[in-house]
Amino acid sequence: MKIDPDVCISCELCLPYCPVSAISMQDDVAVIDQEECVDCQVCLKSGVCPVDCFIFEPAPWPRSIRTVFSDPRTEHKATGIAGRGTEEMKTNDVTGRFQRGWVGMGCEFGRPGVGARFYDIDKVARVLASHGVEFEPKNPVTALMEDPKTGKIQEDVLNEKVLSGIIECLFPIENLKDIMDALKEVAREVDTVFSVEVINRADPDGSYPLRKLLEEMNIPYYINGKQTVGLGRPLADV
Amino acid sequence: MTHSLHRRGNAESLQEDFVFLFIPAKGINDNGHEAKLQEFLRITLKHDPKNIGAITIGNMYSHQVDEIIDGATGVAHAVFDNTDAVTGVLQDLKEADLGLSTIVSGIFENVDGCLEKAGLKHHTANFSLGIWGNTGKLPSDDVLEVTTMCGHALIAANLVQSMVDEVKAGRKTADEAAKTLAPQCACGIFNPARATKLIAAMAAK
Fold first, then answer.
1. Do B108 and A224 touch (CB under 8 A)?
2. Most CB atoms closer than 10 Å: which of A33, A91, A128, A152?
3. Do A4 and A52 belong together in one domain?
4. pTM summary value
5. ipTM
6. Are the beta carbons of A224 and B17 separated by less than 8 Å?
7. Shortest CB distance from A112 goes to which of B23, B115, B144?
8. What's the pLDDT tens digit per position in A142-191?
9. Residue A5 placed within a domain
């Protein structure tokens, strides 16, 4: 994203709209820091500019991934859906993707509101891979891995910055402790934030085995979360 | 797509914040799903939603309700601020038997209470383990409570602070400030009713 300096009227109205604070005033004109800009188009689509001075032209590879990972209105080729991840647990009552005895995990880099470079995503993906997780094949971050067995992200995108990139993976519930310990360790080496989520299918009595394990391991979780309610059809047998 | 999961706040605030997602499974039951999304949105409108929307079109604060209903594809969303409304929507959805996956975000205990009243049971859960990594880069907790209501992070922390400053200066009401933020959240899961209270509290500090 760029600002046409000949059109900008220095009103400064756009400055607070940038989710990664990439717009600043220089010599009385609003300027976008191209290194920090994630091409999310929030500034443009907000309509805040009274003189329409934003200019967006789709970037060539590898910068082109900034928009697909940062603007949820853009469809990922890897998933066929708009947004940064997949259907994950949302359709589990129909897909049966997350079965009893398994845990789904998501690590959403850059969120909330900081942004992330792929070299940080690469660090965590490699650690998770070394613990034998199965990366979600339809996930856009998985699509950027040289080899999902190693988790290594391809070299040419490592320095690209995005508003958000999600690692999605799956592992047997008995591996939870080892994986959480490894995640805590690698989190210290990451220069951005990431929000962590775990997914679990309820047992027939309605309890979540994962919740009990988290409590035993003293891993805090939010009082609020997301649940499917079993109204999807045909219902998966999981 | 964990956009309705990591909403931050205390129990008092979150008890007025519930998000519905209504979504087909790609390749399984997505044929002709648009009509079902439309029916879902019409059902939610009977229960005084605080927002509705779909990423393909926008939300109640950027588009007319009819435009959202006509343009929704993929996933539809609705936001409520009380358990009676959540229970009512669940009861109506159960009766309508539209066959798409329904997801409810909110305080687990409260959502489970609504499910029980509607004669439904939870199936699969998504738990948030919070924010990890270099958390020194985050804005303040009270700003995060507002920004995390747009799970795609399209509402900037600086814009929230700017709105608080506007309210403090008497140039906007908290309600006007919340409605300035709402259009930025493309899919419509932002809760302007809750945001109004949060912004008023920040401005009063």
1. yes
2. A91
3. yes
4. 0.96
5. 0.96
6. yes
7. B144
8. 999 999 999 999 999 999 999 999 999 999 999 999 999 999 999 999 99
9. yes
Closest Cβ–Cβ partner in B55, B120, B156 for A82: B55
Chain A residue with CA closest to B91: the answer is A231
How many helices (H) and strands (E) in chain A? 6, 13
Question: pLDDT grade, residue A79 (50/70/90)?
Answer: low
A37 and A155 share a domain? no
- The pair of structure tokens assigned to A75 is 């469809």
> Is B154 touching A (CB cutoff 8 A)?
yes
Ordered alpha helix ranges (H), chain A:
42-46, 64-70, 92-95, 118-130, 176-187, 209-216
A158 assigned to some structural domain: yes
Tell whether A187 is covered by a domain: yes
Structural domain of residue A49, as residue ranges? Answer: 1-57
Residue whose pair of structure tokens reads 């009380």 in the numeric block: B82
**pLDDT for the residue A75:** 73
Instruction: Catalogue all structural domains in chain B, each as residue range(s) with its CATH number.
Output: 11-118 (3.30.70), 135-204 (no CATH)
Q: Which residue from A182, A163, A159, A179 is spatially nearest to A171, judged by alpha carbons? A: A179
At residue B175, does pLDDT exceed 90? yes
- Number of structural domains, chain A? 2
Residues A99, A146, single domain; the answer is: yes
Q: Would residue A224 count as lying in a domain?
A: no
User: What element of type H or E holds B23?
Assistant: strand B18-23
**Same domain membership, residue A210 and residue A148:** yes
State the nearest Cα–Cα gap between B186 and chain A, in angstroms. 8
User: What is the three-class DSSP state of A162?
Assistant: strand
pLDDT (tens digit per residue) in A24-57: 999 999 999 999 999 999 999 999 999 999 999 9
Which of A90, A94, A196 is closest, CB to CB, to B28? Answer: A94
Considering the domain architecture, whether residues A212 and A98 belong to the same structural domain is answered as yes
CATH of residue A9's domain is 3.30.70.20
Spatial separation of the C-alpha atoms in residues A108 and A98, rounded to whole Å:
19
Could you give phi then psi for residue A18, rounded to 5 degrees?
A: -75, 120
